[in-house]
Write a structure and sequence with these properties.
mainly beta; Neuraminidase
């Protein structure tokens, strides 16, 4: 519209100038009309200036940040806050400002006042199985941690009989600021089940505790509602089963999962999303609904069967994300974006979700591509900073163990 108006104005100016020159040969008419020409030219000049200004006006970025460019990380401050770590996996924040995080060999560490404490909060006896994915995984502090001092973790542990258990346990902080083991809330195993553990542990906005489990390398068990593998589980904080779970008497919230490792809730709607490893391809971002079947191993990617859910987004046949940590940002430049890390993808992915259509992904952007290698741990701090951990020495990456880094990303 502005372009059409500006062109019209330019034509009028050209016409008026020619008219004025013609009137110079008609002295009387020129004298009578000179004031009109001055007014018209002045008015039209102001209009042209306004049009030019509009063409150079700064583009307004939508509140959801959907037009932010791929180089937005150039404006971010990326601070290395700890290094020489052993595969940081889960991260959470206590009300007193401490940063809790797990290391896969079994340690729970604390960063306090910007410094990593040398003594672990607690060291658990875990089993790093023949598959390099075993060990200590996700961590969640109770929403009332300041009052009850409870923390929750997922990990694998080998029993004396050789059986590997996949466990969800509750821990407790003592008055001296160290942690102790409290109880096992749930556990499961399968013969030779030494891979695909899931491992994400988070509290939802409903106050319930969620735990993701993989299929333990036995795909068919994901469709078995009598087994906990290949599921997203939902519990009360004390380990009991909520009355409103979709399957009475069962902790199962959704099933048909291969190896989900990240959960995130959309602010305001409280819709739940997960990320999940596919079979070397077709990694998934799923919109999770209570009681639904997400198809593994019967369907992957765009395949469909009756009463099975297809993903909101998947990586396709030519790309592998190997997705790990996931969050939906609640504040700042990336507000409402779903971020998830890629191990094999070596990328921080940004999925822009529809604010009105559940399960619709508007766009997928790629950040920090190949900048820090394999990425796993991901969390949003109370101040909106993004905490990001590497996983290059996890037995699959190219580095030796004990060289991982933890970063804090903030925006101006």
């Amino acid at each position: 519209m502005y372009g059409v108006l500006c062109n019209f104005v330019r034509e009028l100016i050209s016409w008026d100038v020619k008219s004025v020159h013609k009137m110079k040969n008609e002295r009387g008419l020129c004298q009578k009309r000179s004031w009109l020409s001055t007014v018209i030219v002045g008015f039209l000049t102001l209009t042209i200036f306004s049009c030019s200004e509009s063409n150079h006006r700064e583009k307004i970025v939508p509140r959801d940040g959907s037009n932010l460019s791929l180089n937005l990380m150039e404006s971010a401050s990326i601070e290395l806050i700890s290094e020489d770590l052993f595969v940081p996996w889960g991260i959470d924040f206590s009300p007193d400002g401490r940063v809790f995080f797990t290391e896969r060999p079994g340690r729970i560490r604390i960063i306090q006042n910007g410094h990593l404490l040398s003594k672990p909060w607690l060291t658990l006896r875990v089993s790093q199985t023949s598959d390099p994915s075993g060990g200590l995984f996700g961590l969640a502090l109770h929403p009332l941690f300041a009052e009850n001092h409870f923390a929750y973790v997922a990990y694998t542990q080998k029993l004396p009989n050789g059986k590997v258990m996949n466990r969800l346990a509750r821990l407790r902080e003592q008055p001296d600021g160290t942690g102790i083991f409290d109880s096992v809330l749930l556990e499961h195993s399968l013969p030779n089940g030494e891979s695909h553990y899931g491992g994400c542990v988070k509290f939802g906005p409903d106050g319930k505790l969620y735990w993701t489990t993989g299929d333990l390398g036995h795909p068919d068990v994901s469709q078995d509602l009598s087994h906990l593998a290949g599921k997203i589980l939902r519990l009360n904080p004390d380990g009991t089963i909520p009355d409103d779970n979709p399957f009475p008497g069962s902790p199962i919230y959704s099933y048909g999962h291969r190896n989900p490792q990240g959960l995130a809730w959309q602010p305001r709607t409280e819709h739940l999303y997960s990320i999940e490893h596919g079979p070397a391809y077709r990694d998934e971002l799923n919109y999770i609904q209570a009681g639904e079947n997400y198809g593994w191993p019967e369907i992957v990617g765009d395949n469909s069967l009756s009463e099975m859910r297809t993903p909101a987004l998947h990586s396709g046949d030519n790309e592998t994300w190997a997705p790990a940590g996931a969050i939906i940002v609640t504040q700042g430049y990336l507000r409402d974006s779903m971020l998830f890390t890629g191990l094999k993808g070596m990328t921080l992915y940004r999925a822009i979700l529809s604010p009105t259509v559940p399960g619709k992904v508007i766009d997928l952007k790629r950040l920090l591509v190949n900048k820090y290698g394999r990425l796993r741990a991901l969390a949003e701090g109370p101040d909106g900073s993004i905490y990001l951990g590497t996983s290059n020495g996890d037995g699959i990456g190219s580095e030796e163990p004990g060289r991982e880094k933890l970063f804090r990303i903030s925006f101006p």
